[in-house]
Design goal:
The chain contains 18 helices and 51 strands. By secondary structure, it is α+β, with helices and mostly antiparallel strands. The strands form twelve sheets. Strands 32-31-33-34-41-40-39-36-37 form a nine-stranded mixed β-sheet, sandwiched between helices. Strands 9, 10, 13, 15, 16, 17, 18 and 19 form an eight-stranded mixed β-sheet that branches. Helix 6 packs parallel to helix 9, helix 7 runs parallel beside helix 8 and helix 10 crosses helix 12. The N and C termini lie far apart (about 90 Å).
């Protein structure tokens, strides 16, 4: 597939697994052909007024949206009848194909969306033995407590209908039959699929349907076997709305038609184990349709997507406020240990933290419709029907419950599993709790108002703040089923952190965004904790409305600014996020752990004022159409050549972008203008498109070549291997440049280069984003480059770029120079010498500008240690120390000086005991020796003692 096609293409991520049962339903919707006929037979057809026109020059299918049905119906008369594919029932829109230089009426026109091809996401599949492999529906249901309400309240989905928008459901599969052996499935195919054989379906939809509504009857070895591996609502009717073909692919218009049709039916719940990464904002027909579904009382549940650990990858519709977005929890041996590695990572639309809730999603055993036997699939596709099936049971239990009430109950039931908020949202769903909460909401008029994010800590990618003296503003969402005023209460035990929240918050039905400020007030390295809870007007604590904060303070050093203003691939800007809350959120977290303040520029136009307090500007994967103005280029030139500051360019051509699964070119001309006076040039006009694993292109299905740091450069340790795909670079000495380095190579091509300017400014260019993105800093890339190497590259890159303007701290331990790590023996006293200099090499004395801290086991077992410091001379200090506890210690010196970038000099210390790690083996050897000694003693007693003793022993 051509890379440019996918930039505008909708990527429906068939998130994996299809076990689900639907029953016969009352459709109640007029056919597409009838609707078209009515419009064209109107007697007013020839009496419409003149209207303005917009020219469309492409030959393709478009979804055209108007602001009213009246305007849409007027516009219909300007289209050729045979080109009208679908007229929407719920919104004033129409799908028209074969548009070439055709007049599109402008009056009342709201949006024109291209109808693009949908691409399968990657997924894992296995045919398994139900006795041994995978996670059964029974075990998965136990984890989320569905049996507790199913058996206690006799909730099985009888006479309820769930609409499954997917790739079809096996009608005659025993897994979807009722107690009389009749199918519970009714089908509907999108217009573009109606000409295809209805029995040729993809197994994904059936697997999803089985999780939602399977009855546990499998065809195993030719015999029907009844098991307890049943879906969430095993007696529910299934409306299988097919919007994907037999390959699992489809088009935007098919999905939109499926949503439109589902709204017109009696289905209480609509579920979509798919998503798109193309989103046009408030007037996107997807958003308009799901708002209509919400207004019509439909509970809509959708997969978050399999875009983790990439940031800003939660798909649409899962990311919409009117939809419950679902992530995948990782289940093993009957327990949930974390989120699944590739469950989508937020933030999502409008900076919403991520998916709303998670459910089991790995190796879920459902049905293979072709055989009726068992099959296991993995993905957020599998977590989604657990939520939608459970929502159907709640609706069965409380028929008058509103969508908002059921959603509030589900979100409030979430159990925090300690994973990143951007992946887990409110946490793991618990339907027993959800039932009780919904009962309280309806019968006792209780408010729960679940808050997302409910936790700010160092483990999150974006929802965190640990830098002393820094205030950060975070979006916090409150979900409510009604209008209510809530009041924040800040815990009196809060230490080292300050919350700035309005004294009262007026909450309306649905999602409410409130921006709050969190400031780290601690001026020492220590553990900080804070809590906010909320009460209603009667001073009653609201159970699910609370926010916690905990972190270990770090001192602010340099300021790093990511430019995402030239990140324009996606019309809405949502998925086009090559910044610190998107593709590089893990890099952002890594750098913040080093003390750097990470900021992002999303505005319009880089200016001198913007860069005034910035130490390092990062331009990461600017997009193909992104243009840097002459003014911006001059500003960046002054930044590095006059101000002596630093620039990092990552120019891989959109590799592994947040909005696209493939690759594209970038604006090489403008980047080379920025690099004009640095001695570095980007040679290629585009990235090399890599090979793929298997038949589909996906987030990690590429073959990156191993790049290796060279032996002559001194910036990184030589021989570090990292993944690379991108253009080659060339270097030369030019005026204003003191030195240029070819740092890393892919075969004979330079792929990383650096430049030292006479101004003390520094520039580095990576032709690949792979070492820095969220996958590269969390997992090993196939073909080369470990996460450890990549994180070290990130640290060393920024450290080198800022070195000329930073405070310098040198360590010696027992007179041996130490740079980052030192191993020492427990109980033995050792000497640490430190010297501290500013950027001009002047020695600094301890006092107001320098503080020294130590900490034991950083995040897990926080415990500071203290010591006496002896001043040897100006800026030179010495102290003695010993450890009596085995383990890792972090040692920090924080120094600041006017005109220099503050430094948080760090070394890692590991206290061990000689042969300590061999203690287990030594113990076993000792036990063996003792056993041998005992045996020898017994033998000696038996054979070597005098006859009298032998006789006594023989008597005994």
């Amino acid at each position: 597939m051509h890379p440019k096609l996918t930039i505008n293409s909708i990527i429906i991520l068939l998130l994996l697994t299809s076990n689900f049962s639907l029953m016969m339903i009352d459709v109640g919707a007029e056919s597409n052909n009838t609707r078209v006929k009515e419009v064209y037979n109107t007697p007013e057809k020839n009496k419409f007024p003149e209207f303005n026109l917009i020219k469309s020059t492409t030959l393709e299918t478009k979804i055209i949206v108007y602001d009213s049905f009246e305007q849409r119906d007027i516009a219909l008369n300007s289209f050729d009848r045979e080109n009208i594919e679908y007229i929407f029932l719920s919104i004033p829109a129409v799908t028209v194909n074969q548009i070439s230089n055709m007049d599109i009426p402008e009056d009342g026109l709201v949006n024109v969306v291209s109808d693009e091809i949908i691409i399968n996401s990657d997924y894992q599949e296995d045919l398994v033995s139900i006795e041994t492999d995978g996670n059964s529906l029974k075990d998965s249901g136990d984890i989320i407590n569905v049996d507790a309400i199913r058996d206690k309240y006799n909730l099985y989905g009888k006479d309820m209908t769930i609409a499954i928008i997917d790739s079809g459901v096996g009608i005659n599969t025993p897994f979807f039959s009722d107690e009389n052996g009749n199918s519970r499935v009714t089908t509907y195919n999108a217009t573009g699929l109606r000409s295809e054989a209805s029995d040729i379906i993809d197994y994904h939809g059936s697997h999803v349907a089985g999780i939602a509504a399977g009855n546990g009857v499998y065809n195993i070895n030719g015999e029907l076997v009844e098991t307890d591996n049943i879906g969430m609502a095993p007696k529910a009717n299934i409306l299988a709305i097919r919007v994907l073909d037999e390959t699992g692919s489809g088009k935007n218009s098919w999905m939109l038609e499926g949503i439109d049709y589902a709204i017109s039916t009696s289905a209480s719940v609509i579920t979509l184990s798919l998503s798109t990464n193309l989103y046009y904002g408030d007037n996107d027909p997807i958003r308009l349709l799901f708002n209509k579904a919400y207004d019509a009382g439909k509970i809509v549940v959708a997969a978050g997507g399999n875009r983790g650990p990439m940031g800003s990858g939660v798909g649409i519709p899962g990311g919409l406020e009117s939809v419950i977005g679902v992530g995948a929890a990782y289940m093993e041996n009957g327990f949930i240990s974390d989120t699944w590695d590739f469950s989508a990572v937020g933030p999502s639309v409008n900076d919403y933290p991520g998916s709303d809730i998670i459910a089991p999603g790995n190796q879920i055993i459902s049905v293979n419709y072709t055989s009726g036997n068992v099959m296991a699939l993995t993905g957020t596709s599998m977590g989604t029907p657990f939520i939608s099936g459970g929502a159907l049971l709640l609706k069965e239990a409380f028929p008058t419950a509103t969508v908002a009430q059921i959603r509030e109950a589900i979100l409030a039931s979430g159990i925090d599993i300690g994973s990143k908020i951007e992946v887990q949202g409110r946490g793991l769903v618990d339907f027993d709790r959800a039932y009780t909460i919904l009962e309280d909401i309806i019968e006792n008029d209780m408010a729960y108002v679940p808050v997302v994010p409910s936790r700010f800590d160092d483990f999150n990618y974006y929802f965190r703040n640990r830098l002393s003296g820094i205030t950060k503003t975070f979006p916090v969402y409150f979900y409510s089923n009604s209008n209510i005023t809530i009041y924040p209460n800040i815990d009196v035990d809060t230490h080292g952190v300050e919350f700035s929240i309005p004294s009262s918050i007026n909450i309306t039905t649905g999602n409410n965004r409130i921006d709050i400020n969190i400031t780290v007030t601690s001026d020492t390295i220590e553990f900080n904790f804070g809590k906010v809870y909320f009460t209603d007007e009667n001073d009653i604590i609201i159970p699910a409305a609370n926010i916690t904060y905990y972190s270990v303070t770090r001192f602010k050093t340099g300021t790093v600014l990511f430019d995402t203003s030239h990140d324009q691939d996606t019309p809405s800007g949502y998925f086009a996020n090559h910044g610190p809350r998107g593709q590089f959120s893990r890099l952002s977290r890594t750098l913040e752990e080093e003390g750097y303040l990470i900021e992002e520029f999303r505005g319009d136009g880089i200016t001198d004022e913007l860069l005034q307090n910035v130490d390092l500007l990062v331009i990461a994967d600017p997009d193909v159409n992104a243009t840097f103005t002459t003014s911006e280029i001059n500003v960046i030139d002054r930044f590095i050549n006059q101000d002596g500051k630093s620039l990092l360019i990552i120019a891989s051509g959109g590799i592994l972008t947040a909005e696209d699964l493939t690759y594209d070119t970038f604006n090489i001309l403008d980047l080379n203008k920025i690099l004009l006076n640095t001695g570095i040039r980007i040679d290629s006009t585009e990235a090399v498109i890599p090979c793929v694993y298997g038949s589909t292109v996906d987030r990690i299905s590429f073959c990156p070549q191993d790049a290796t740091t060279g032996t002559s450069q001194k910036i990184f340790p030589s021989g570090i291997v990292f993944p690379n795909y991108g253009p080659s670079l060339s270097t030369s000495i030019v005026d204003g440049v003191d030195a240029v380095y070819n740092i890393a190579f892919q075969e004979d091509e330079t792929v990383v280069a650096a430049s030292e300017l006479t101004s003390n400014g520094r520039v580095m260019v990576f032709s690949s984003s792979l070492p820095f993105d969220n996958i590269g800093t969390t997992t090993d890339y196939p073909g080369g480059g470990s996460d450890v190497n990549n994180r070290q590259l990130a640290r060393d890159t920024v450290k080198w770029l800022l070195a000329p303007r930073s405070v310098k701290i040198d360590y010696k331990i027992d007179d041996e120079p130490v740079t980052d790590y030192y191993e020492l023996n427990m109980y033995k006293q050792f000497k640490i010498d430190i010297s501290i200099r500013d950027k001009d090499n002047n020695l600094l004395d301890l006092g107001e500008t320098v503080t020294v801290h130590g900490i034991f086991d950083n995040l897990e077992y926080w415990q500071p240690f203290s010591f006496e410091i002896n001043r040897i001379s100006t800026g030179v200090y010495s102290f003695y120390f010993s450890f009596d506890l085995y383990g890792f210690y972090d040692f920090y010196i924080y120094a600041q000086a006017n005109g220099s970038i503050s430094s948080s000099g760090y070394i890692g210390l590991f206290a061990t005991l000689n042969y300590y790690e061999d203690a287990g083996a030594i113990q076993k050897i000792s036990q063996l020796l003792l056993l041998l000694l005992m045996i020898s003693w017994i033998l000696w007693l038996k054979n070597e003692r005098p006859p009298k003793i032998k006789k006594e022993l023989s008597k005994k």
